[in-house]
Amino acid sequence: MRAELNNLEQIDLYLSGNMSAAQKSAFEAQIAADPALKSIVEDQQLLIQTVNRQALIAEINTIAGVGAAAAAGSAGGFSTLGWVVSGIVAAGAIGTAVYISSSDPSNENPEANELIVSTEVKEGKDEETIGYDDALDTNISVEDEEAIAAIEEIDLQMNPIVPVEHHNEGNSSNYSPQNNQVEEDDDSKELIHSSKTIKNKHKDHGIMNNGSASNKTNYSPQKNSNKSGKGTKKSGKTTNKENASNTFVANQTASFPNGDLERTNWVDKHLRYPRTPKDKGLEGIVKVTFFVNPDGQRTNIDPNLIRMSNRSEADKPYSGIQILRNGKSARMFEKEAARIVRIMPDWVPATDRYGNPVISEQILYVKFDIEEGCYVYQLN
Amino acid sequence: MTDEEIIREIRAGRREQAIKELYNEFPKIRANIQSTGGDEGTAREIFHDSLVLLIEKVSKPDFELTSKLTTYLYGINRFLWKNELRKRNRNPELEWKDTLILSADDLDYNEEKEEKIRVLDKVLASVTERCKKIFEMFYYRRKSMKEIADQLEFSSVNSAKTQKYKCMEKAIAMARELKQGGQIYQTEHK
Fold first, then answer.
1. What are the structural domain ranges in chain A?
2. Where along chain B do its domains lie?
3. DSSP assignment of chain B, as one string?
4. Chain B residues inside the 8 Å CB shell of A4
5. A80-124 pLDDT, tens per residue?
6. Chain A residues inside the 8 Å CB shell of B125
7. Cross-chain residue pair B181–A324, CB shorter than 8 Å
8. Per-residue pLDDT tens over the stretch A112-150
9. Most buried residue, A112, A250, B17, B71, by CB count within 10 Å?
10. Is A301 within 8 Å of B122 when comparing Cβ atoms?
């Protein structure tokens, strides 16, 4: 181990060009005499180049995003603005209905992906909470709920890792009765009897009980619904991100024209299941990251296969190496996902807080499923 | 910024200002690409790739600038766009002003290597986030192992070094398995 570590450091030093002339020629002689070493050096060199390239591309994209947004802001003018406003009005008319129905396909496919599962759970929890309150005839007014929501936001800031919903606290018995502690029972009684004290009560909790037992119980439903531990971590992060972005006034989400339902229909018509993976019974999910320009065009489309499995064992996702072995199918999935994003009609771009269209980064998940067909999800 | 300043910044690993400066050339290059059938998106992708190639090239210690840096940048863009057009089975004459005519050899550009890098992209996507972070900090941001150990909360510099070694070993093993796997896969299906 020690020797190998040394070796690696030597190679790093050599490749970075920081060796003295004497060291360099000695090392080159060593490489020439040892084919195994030579091939390690070559592999490492290429890998380092790839690392640098990925980081560089990320940096360029960031800079381009900022630069392009600024340019669009100044050059956009009124004509573009007018166009976008009318676009939003048209989309707004069916906005709400589409939003609800767009979550339906994901309900039919709970296995779709971890991120979606977590969103569902969150929604589900909210509904259950409301149901519980109604059943006990408590009079929690809209203002109180707003106050609670505001406090939750503070909680999130204080404890950014765990997406806790404190108004579930008193109801934790819904999820895991065995964890129901006496203290919490008291809380829930108070919650029911005097809605006026709720605000203070919750404030106290927000400050005091980060990481306490009730937090754990709140978190457990999410954990249970995600099969892998990794998924839990991921979904936690995403939920937080969503909450954070909701606090901005600007609309950071670009969208398919006329809403999600329209997108589903459009994708149904245009997406083709690539032949090679279909013949092999392979299914997959591709995460497509791309920019939506102020004019609605998509650029820098970057498809990445995040899950592949065989249809006969759909619950067993392939490992990284298995995916790599099916490289051709993986590439075909990615190509098709990129193509579908590329040929879409112009999107409604994101806007800054003045309503000007700006460039934005968006993510779509394209799911290839042989029996149930293909779906596209947008998570922003 | 003068050409020398841009090159100096890039070599020192301070790329941001340099990229911003070079990005000023994008509108002209976009116009050139759009006039021969490319759209906005393609133009941006090609321009970003050209920045990558330029920065890689400039970072090499033996690089010597023989023209204005922007002229060189135009040359790379022209090369990449021609390459793209060839893939689309089109080969129009590209008459760009103030550009160099560069060949693949001039740019150390070869498809075989690009393909290998595409494969390694996938390999990097399957190593852990922590490994990726170490690689990025060490090779791209050129942080010392001490800084990396501090920032990623390793117990010591040595344990960070060991982790980096393991990450590298794993990534190379994966790349090799893939190479072999690819061959097996091909022979199976002949």
1. 1-75, 78-104+251-378, 114-246
2. 3-87, 111-188
3. --HHHHHHHHHTT-HHHHHHHHHTTHHHHHHHHHTTT--HHHHHHHHHHHHHHHHHHHHSTT----S-HHHHHHHHHHHHHHHHHHHTT-------SS-----TTTTT--HHHHHHHHHHHHHHHHS-HHHHHHHIIIIIS---HHHHHHHTT-SSHHHHHHHHHHHHHHHHHHHHHHHHHHHHHHHHT-
4. 165, 169
5. 332 333 333 333 333 333 333 333 343 334 333 333 333 333 333
6. 304, 320
7. yes
8. 333 333 333 333 334 333 333 333 333 444 444 444 444
9. A112
10. no
